[in-house]
């Protein structure tokens, strides 16, 4: 599990809004850390607020650890970048094999659309799977 600290800012029903103290997992300085915290500071000046399930009914102001399943960030990045790109290339190659340059461009557009639809489907599946959702750790 990868986790980061935050403070509960709001509670509703079974969920809590958590203001994250840091961007990234907090392992940037450790060996094997990705350094994403530095990129996050560059692109996102303010800390993020996330909404997670709150099974322990933590109250507003509570300091909590938000955990994300190991591998979920890499899997998400793979889906977000590789799937549409591979579909675009496959469409362009298919179009090129069927015709000329215009067919390759059309195939690339169709491939990109198919990749986007595949990404939307993968996103829906991941959102339904509780193993890949962030959670509050005791």
Automatic annotation (TrEMBL):
Keywords noted in UniProt: Membrane, Transmembrane, Transmembrane helix
Coiled-coil regions, chain positions: none
Any Pfam family hit: RseC_MucC
Transmembrane segments: 78-96, 102-119
Protein name: Fis family transcriptional regulator
């Amino acid at each position: 599990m990868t986790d980061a600290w935050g403070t509960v800012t709001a509670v509703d029903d079974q969920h809590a809004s958590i203001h994250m103290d840091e961007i990234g997992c907090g392992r940037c300085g450790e060996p094997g850390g990705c350094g994403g915290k530095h990129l996050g500071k560059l692109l996102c000046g303010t800390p993020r607020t996330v909404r997670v399930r709150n099974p322990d009914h933590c109250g507003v102001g509570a300091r909590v650890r938000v955990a994300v399943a190991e591998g979920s960030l890499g899997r998400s990045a793979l889906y977000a970048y590789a799937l549409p790109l591979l579909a675009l290339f496959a469409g362009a190659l298919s179009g090129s094999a069927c015709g000329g340059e215009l067919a390759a461009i059309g195939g690339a557009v169709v491939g990109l659309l198919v990749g986007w639809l595949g990404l939307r489907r993968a996103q829906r599946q991941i959102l339904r799977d509780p193993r890949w959702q962030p959670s509050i750790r005791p």
